[in-house]
Amino acid sequence: MTLKELLTGGGSALLILATLLQIAPIKINPWSFIAKKIGKALNGEVVEKVDGLERNVEKLRSECEERAANNCRTRILHFGDEILHNVRHSKEHFDQILLDITDYEQYCNNHPHFKNNVAVATIKRITEVYEECVENNDFLE
Questions:
Q1: In angstroms, what CA-CA distances link 93 with 1, 88, 103, 139?
Q2: Are 91 and 139 in contact (CB under 8 A)?
Q3: What whole-number distance in Å separates Cα of residue 11 and Cα of residue 107?
Q4: Would you say 83 and 93 are in contact if contact means Cβ atoms under 8 Å apart?
Q5: Burial 103-140 (b: 16+ CB within 10 A, else e)
Q6: pLDDT tens across 2-41, in order?
Q7: Which end of the chain is more exposed for a tag (fewer CB within 10 A), N or C?
Q8: 3 state DSSP class of 104
Q9: Is residue 122 helix, strand or coil?
């Protein structure tokens, strides 16, 4: 068979097809497409329930973070009251309340809707007293 016979007798179509398949190999698998569609149809309810669970978990996480911020604020206000009543504190106690202040302020910065005006003055006073204690080395032993 000569080159001329190949080109005129359908060999050209085979040659073009082979070239196209080599240049742009496209994987077409109708079985996987059908299986995906059947899987989505069968698991649609499960996927919907998982999406609902994800929303519930996110809501619980948000509530837990807000509760933790409220607990920090409560400890901050309590500590501030103790300072007003001249109760002395150890360096470790100050360190802990400063961590609470950091966590609380970070939560407030990340959640502008959260009401914070109740603890601002107390935090300022705690920081001032802490700085005085550091300067005078006047922590409870």
A1: 96, 10, 15, 9
A2: yes
A3: 73
A4: no
A5: bbbebbeeeeeeebeebeebbeebeebbeebeeeeeee
A6: 656 655 666 566 556 555 555 555 666 677 778 888 888 8
A7: C
A8: helix
A9: helix
